[in-house]
Structures are given as C-alpha cells and as structure tokens.
From TrEMBL:
<comment type="similarity">
    <text>Belongs to the CpsD/CapB family.</text>
</comment>
<dbReference type="InterPro" id="IPR027417">
    <property type="entry name" value="P-loop_NTPase"/>
</dbReference>
<dbReference type="Pfam" id="PF13807">
    <property type="entry name" value="GNVR"/>
</dbReference>
<dbReference type="InterPro" id="IPR032807">
    <property type="entry name" value="GNVR"/>
</dbReference>
<comment type="similarity">
    <text>Belongs to the etk/wzc family.</text>
</comment>
<keyword id="KW-0472">Membrane</keyword>
<dbReference type="InterPro" id="IPR025669">
    <property type="entry name" value="AAA_dom"/>
</dbReference>
<dbReference type="InterPro" id="IPR005702">
    <property type="entry name" value="Wzc-like_C"/>
</dbReference>
<keyword id="KW-0829">Tyrosine-protein kinase</keyword>
<keyword id="KW-1003">Cell membrane</keyword>
<keyword id="KW-0547">Nucleotide-binding</keyword>
<keyword id="KW-1133">Transmembrane helix</keyword>
<feature type="transmembrane region" description="Helical">
    <location>
        <begin position="33"/>
        <end position="51"/>
    </location>
</feature>
<keyword id="KW-0418">Kinase</keyword>
<feature type="domain" description="Tyrosine-protein kinase G-rich">
    <location>
        <begin position="437"/>
        <end position="514"/>
    </location>
</feature>
<protein>
    <recommendedName>
        <fullName>non-specific protein-tyrosine kinase</fullName>
        <ecNumber>2.7.10.2</ecNumber>
    </recommendedName>
</protein>
<keyword id="KW-0812">Transmembrane</keyword>
Length: 788
C-alpha cells in the first residue's frame, strides 16, 4: 500500500469515528427529546417572568456644542462683541469641559436642585414599581445632607384623613401639610395629597445625597465621540425616562450657570479694580480744581495773552503725553502690587493697563490656571499633585508677568524722562510769562493730568461693564435631553433566546454529569471502546420470573437471541464441545445464560451437561429448585464414585443433565486441578455433545483460569448496567497474557432504553471479593443505589 493510500485510509477512519460520536450525540438528544422540549419551555417561562419583574433601563441622551479655539472657535467670533470678549481672558477646551461635567460637585448641585434624593413607587402584587410622579409630594425641610440612611415608607390615607406611613419596621400616622421628623433622615412634610391615593397604594424612598450622587455618576457617561468637532455627548441611564430627562436637563443648566459664574468672576474683579482707581482719581481731580478756583480768586486772573495761549497749547501737548505715561506708570505699580500678593492666587483684571498683546496673553493664561485650580480644589486638597502642578504654573506665569511689568515700566520711565526734558525747555520759555500766569499754567497742567487719568479709567469701566453684560456660556445645547423609545436592558429578544438555550443546556448538563458519574457498562460503545475481544451475542432483559426462557415453541426476542448465540457458538467451537462460563464479578448472569444456552443446544437433539463448578458459591441447583446432593466435590475426593453417582436430571429438558457442586470444600482450587477432576472431564466429554462449566468470577479467584485447561472456548459475561467499565480490562488482560484463551463476550440483560452514554471508566480493581461470604450491608447499599 502506498503512503498516499495509507493516509487516505487513516483519514477515512477518523471521519468515521467523528461521525460515530456525532451520531451518538444526536441519538442521546433524540432519546431525551421530551426533556429538551420541557426545559426549553421552562427557560422561556423563566425569561418571561424575568422580563415581567425586571425594571427596564432607558438611555437619556443630549449633545452640547462647546466653544473651543482649537476646533470650532468661539460663538462670538466675528461679532461686534468679539474684541470685548477678550477682556475676560476665557478660553475653553472640550476635554476640560468633559472633566467639569464629570465632577461630583456639579452632580451634587443637580441633586439638590432636582430633589433626586426623593423617589416614588407604586405598590404591586409581588414588588414595588418606580413611578415618575405620585398623588402626593414629599419635601425635606431640613438640610438634605442630614440624611444618613435609606428609608422606604408606604403611604395610605385612613378614614379620618390622616396619612399612615408603614414599612417592615414601623407604622405611624402624620398629618397632611404638617412637618414630622424621622431619625437619621430629618424633618419632612407631605403636601398635595390627591384622591387617587385611596385607590392605589403608593410609597416614597429617601436616600442619602452621597449615595444618590454616586449612583448618578455611575449612570452618567460624558464623551467626545468625534475629535474633529467640539461637541460633547451626554448619556444618562434611568429606569424612568421622563425623570432622567429632567435630571440631565438640570445637570446641563447647572453646568452652564457655573460656566457663566466663572466668566463673571474675572469681569467683577476688573470692575472692582477700576472702581477703586476711579474713586482715588476723582478725589485728586476735585482737589486740583478747587486749587485752580482758589488761585483765580486770589489773583483776580481773567484772561491770557496770545503768547500765553500758544505756550499753553504747546505745553498741553507735552502735558498730555506725560499724563498718559503717568497713568500707565501708576497702573503698572498697582498691577505689580496686585501680583506680588501670593497669599491666595486671584484672577487678574485683563486689558486694563497695557495694550501689549504678549502681556495680555500672559494675563489670559494666568486667569485660566487660577480658575482651573479653583475647580480642582472643589474635589481635591492642595496637596493633590495636580493642584500642586497648577500652583507651580501659576507662580511661573506670575513671575513672567512681574518681569514684563518691570521691563515696560523701565521703557515708560525712559520715555517720561525725554518728555520731561522737552517740557522743561518749554517751561523755561513760560518763565518769561508773568508769575501769576505761570502759576495758573502749572495748576492747569496738573488738572489735565488728573482728567486724562479719569477719562481713561471711565472708558475701561464702560468696556468691562458692556463685556460682562454680553457674557454668554462657552457651550450651548444643540440636542436637548431625549430618552430612548426602547429600553437598553433587558433586551426581550435576547433574554428569550438565552432563556430557551439555557433551558436546552439544562438537560445537556444533566446528561453530561450523569455520564460522568456512570461507571458501568450502559451501551455497546462502552464495550467496544478499548475492547479487542469478539462479542458472541447479546441477551435482552427479561421480566419473566423463571430461569429458563427458551422452549421448543418459544418465539420471543430473547429466545431468538439465545438461538443466535447457539449458532455463533457452533462456529466458535469448530466441532469442539467444552464451554467455560465466567465473568468479572458475581451477579452478571453466568448461570442464567448457561441454563438457557444448554436448553437451546438440547433443542437440537444434543446431549448437554451443565457442571456447577462454582464450588465457593453454587447457584444453579438453587435456581432449578433441586435438592442438594452429591456432586463434583464428592466425586473428586471419593475414588469409588462413578459418573452416574453425581449426574442429576436438570428438569429443564430431558437432554440436559447437571453435575452439582457438592459440598463446599476448603480447597476448591486444588480440587479443580486434581487427577480425578481431569479424569471426570475426559469422561463427560465422551458421554455428552456439549459440556458447559459454570465457573466462579475471574476477578479475584483463579478457579476460572484453572478450569480453562479443560475448555475449548470461554464465554465471558458482561451485564448491562452492572459490570464496571474498568472490568472490561480483565478479559483483555487474560487474553493478552495467555491465561484464558480464547474468550468471547456475551452481553447480558440489555435494556432497550434508547439512551446513549459516553463516559469513561472507573478505577481498575473491582473483582470477585470475598466470594462465598454474603455481605448483608453491601447488599443493602446495592439495593439503595440500584438503578430502576
């Protein structure tokens, strides 16, 4: 055979083996189809009840558009207020706003505003059902943070109009609209009680704020699904869709309000700074004007000469420049002192002092870091690494701003020095003007300086006030909270399918476990697996009380099986006549099969002898209801006895005789191999066509192996549901070690259950045991675990 042909044959055998396993599995399922049907229906029923009493969960979705300079830009971009919005110095990032929406403090504000710590339910037949609203309203009059425990109370109205609150632990009455206290909860009040309360029992549950916040935080998810746009998706899971929409809407409102508050902090700080400066400049300007008025009264000054007018015009030009420089220097000093206060980082007024774009960028960066630090401190301490990191960044930006102010101040002082030099030259010319006029010019120049400062600050105040009024949130709702039409859990179709398949898996699991726990021969596959010995035939289970089930006129299936065994036996014997019956242990039907096979052979007109050679525990005599007489043991120990002295008619057929075991000897093994025993075997072979030897089990005694010397074939009994799988190794070992040969198997007591089993064996070692000594306790346990 070529290598290719060999591989093809090998693969064919594998396919046959796989197909056989598949057919065994299909047969196992088909033979128990009713269990699969019932369990499948049971699984669907369980799925129905699960869906009936499981609270469905819906999703509430919303979408926000955030102004992000890196992505979508500001909503004010390109508008008339776009320039003024820079005064606030506010920039947003989508990722930062996601973190803000996920803070516990924001969720806590929503819980307080929406009273989410109070929920209502309607009493049902088996369990309570959460409802969106109830025919009454519960309010907490005390601080909601005083709630320490979860409490659920059913509410009903008695005939007197009082409300009866009950739970498994307590029952008490309260009046409508009257406050009442509950330990670990606080002061409560029930209002707006409707008539429907008398028809349908309702109740309410109060939970600690912290637990409600934690639960909502787990139910809320905030994500940026598309990195190319500045939109944020919010999803809230809720068992009450309408309630979930309200909670998500309130969360968005609190977020928008907090965002506006952050922007207004910068504007309010700027306005406060400008107001303080305006107050000081107003007082100084009023003092200068009073000095001018007093000077004119003292000197009776009325008009200026033309020369004085020209000098004043020129002087005014320098005076204005010096005034602007002084204003800037004064603002620089105030801003520098403001920044040097490091005790508590505060937002810095923007665009008040300089028109330098680089310095304004530092202010914006500084304000962003201060606001971010304040947000982090809402849920963290100052020792948190993130807070420390931002504090270090704030300090670095502050130093950069102080350095920039110092550099700008040096430039302004240099410019002022040059302007002062030019002004001094003009002053020297003015000195030629009369003293009175020169004094007036000095006062007028001081007035211009103060007036310029006042006008500048007033303009900045108006710009900041307008900007604050035009403040809008950096985000807006582009998709309002909307609940899903179908619940996300449980999924009805999936639950029904899972219930059906789980129901089908139940009988499969039982069959598998049953197969694992079964250690006895339950099918032909159990015998064929690992067995190399031929099977001569099978004998079905019989419910008949008698030991002999075959007669001349018998046409039963079991009678036909014995006839088939008889036919196969003729081919196995090949004109020989001695047959040895043995098995692995007691109770496998050796005597039963030997008697019926003997009758079957006698029906052919053959003379058959049954030898009861189980000298330890003989059973054929008892099964045939014969009286005990002289037998094999008598013949062997008494040389004077002849064959006729131990022969006994069997009573089952005229051609079937019996040699009883005789008295139970102390040394049965020695008797079986004695010279008298060999002589007896030679004699019976001459007088009978067939000699059937009923030997003891071969498990733990050697009698059957000793009798094999007289046998032409050994029939090894395997009983369905009785023989252990591991005991099938015994006949195979006997043949491989040439202790008994040849051996052919007979499968006895086969029950037509239609079941299939494919489990593996028990430990080797189950044998004959203490043969001949009946163990009542063991018998009792066998009856207890006997398969019905």
């Amino acid at each position: 055979m070529s290598a290719k042909d060999w591989n093809d044959e090998f693969e064919f055998e594998d396919r046959q083996s796989d197909n056989k396993e598949l057919m065994r599995f299909v047969g196992q399922v088909l033979s128990n189809w009713y269990w699969f049907f019932l369990c499948g229906i049971l699984g669907i029923l369980l799925a129905f009840f699960y869906l009936r009493y499981t609270v469905p969960v819906y999703t509430v979705e919303a979408k926000l558009l955030v102004s992000d300079d890196k992505k979508g830009g500001s909503s004010l971009e390109g508008s008339l207020m776009g320039d003024l919005s820079g005064l606030m110095g506010g920039k947003s990032s989508v990722d930062n706003e996601v973190e803000v929406l996920l803070t516990h403090d924001l969720m806590r504000e929503m819980v307080y505003a929406d009273s989410s710590y109070i929920s209502y339910f309607a009493e049902g037949t088996f369990k309570a059902r959460s409802v969106y609203s109830a025919p009454f309203e519960v309010s907490i009059l005390s601080d909601p943070d005083s709630i320490r425990e979860i409490i659920s109370l059913g509410i009903a109205q008695d005939e007197g109009g009082q409300l009866v609150l009950t739970n498994p632990d307590t029952t008490f009455q309260v009046a409508i609209g009257k406050p009442f206290a509950i330990d670990e909860v606080g002061l409560l009040q029930i209002n707006n009680v409707g008539q429907i309360l008398k028809e349908q029992p309702y109740g309410f549950t109060i939970r600690p704020v912290g637990k409600v916040v934690a639960g909502l935080m787990q139910a809320l998810s905030v994500s940026v699904t598309n990195k190319n746009v500045s939109t944020i998706d919010l999803v809230l899971k809720s068992s009450l869709p309408k309630r979930g929409e309200e909670q998500l809407q309130m969360l968005i409102q609190k977020y928008v309000q907090r965002n506006l508050d952050d922007k207004n902090v910068i504007a309010d700080s700027t306005l406060s700074f400008i107001n303080a400066r305006l107050t000081a400049i107003t007082q100084e300007l009023a003092g200068v004007e009073d000095r001018i008025s007093g000077y004119k009264q003292r000197t009776q000054l009325a008009d200026m000469t033309e020369q004085s007018r020209i000098l004043l015009e020129n002087s005014a030009s320098y005076t204005k420049s010096l005034a602007e420089i002084d204003v800037q220097l004064s603002s620089l000093d105030a801003m520098s002192n403001y920044l040097r206060d490091v005790s508590n980082p505060r937002v810095v007024p923007a665009s008040v002092v300089l028109h330098d774009a680089a310095f304004n960028a530092l202010i914006n960066r500084y304000n962003e870091l201060v606001l971010q630090r304040e947000r982090l401190l809402l849920a963290n301490t100052e020792d948190n690494p993130l807070v420390k990191n931002i504090t270090v960044q704030i300090a670095g930006v502050r130093e950069d701003m102080i350095s920039s102010l110092a550099s700008t101040k040096r430039n302004l002082e240099l410019s002022r020095s040059k302007q002062a030099q030019m002004s001094n030259q003009l002053t020297s010319q003015i000195q030629r003007v009369p003293t009175i006029e020169r004094g007036y010019i000095d006062l007028a120049r001081l007035q211009q300086i103060k007036q310029a400062q006042y006008i500048f600050l007033q303009e900045k105040w108006e710009e900041t006030a307008i900007s604050r009024t035009a403040n809008v949130s950096n985000s807006k709702v582009i998709d309002a909270p909307r609940s899903s039409q179908e619940p996300i859990s449980p999924k009805k179709k999936i639950i029904y399918v899972l219930g059906f398949f789980v129901g089908l898996l139940l009988p499969l699991g039982i069959l598998y476990i049953k197969g694992l726990l079964n250690v006895r021969v339950m099918s032909m596959d159990d015998i064929e697996r690992g067995n190399k010995l031929p099977i001569l035939g099978t004998v079905s289970h019989s419910d008949e009380q008698g030991q002999v089930v075959i007669t001349k006129t018998s046409r039963s299936p079991i009678a036909e099986q014995f006839r088939a065994i008889r036919t196969n036996l003729e081919f196995a014997l090949q004109s020989k006549k001695t047959i040895l019956f043995t098995s692995s242990m007691s109770g496998e039907g050796k005597s039963y099969v030997a008697l019926n096979l003997a009758v079957s052979l006698a029906l052919l007109g053959k003379k058959v002898l049954i030898m009861e050679l189980d000298l330890r525990k003989p059973s054929i005599t008892t099964k045939l209801n014969l009286s005990a007489g002289k037998g094999f043991s008598h013949y062997v120990v008494r040389p004077e006895m002849r064959l006729e002295d131990v022969l006994t008619p069997s009573g089952v057929h005229e051609h079937v005789d019996l040699i009883q075991a005789g008295a139970i000897p102390p040394n049965p093994a020695e008797l079986l191999v004695s010279a008298r025993a060999e002589q007896l075997m030679q004699t019976v072979k001459e007088h009978y066509d067939y000699v059937l030897m009923d030997a003891p089990p071969v498990g733990m005694v050697t009698d059957a192996q000793l009798l094999n010397r007289y046998a032409d074939v050994c029939l090894y009994l395997v009983r369905h549901g009785h023989t252990f799988k591991e005991q099938l190794r015994i006949p195979n070992d006997l043949v491989s070690k040439e202790r008994i040969s040849p051996i052919q198997l007979i499968v006895n007591d086969v029950k037509a259950t239609g079941s299939y089993y494919s489990n593996y064996g028990y430990g080797y070692g189950y044998g004959y045991g203490e043969y001949g000594q009946e163990d009542k306790s063991k018998k009792c346990w066998q009856q207890l675990f006997k398969r019905k």
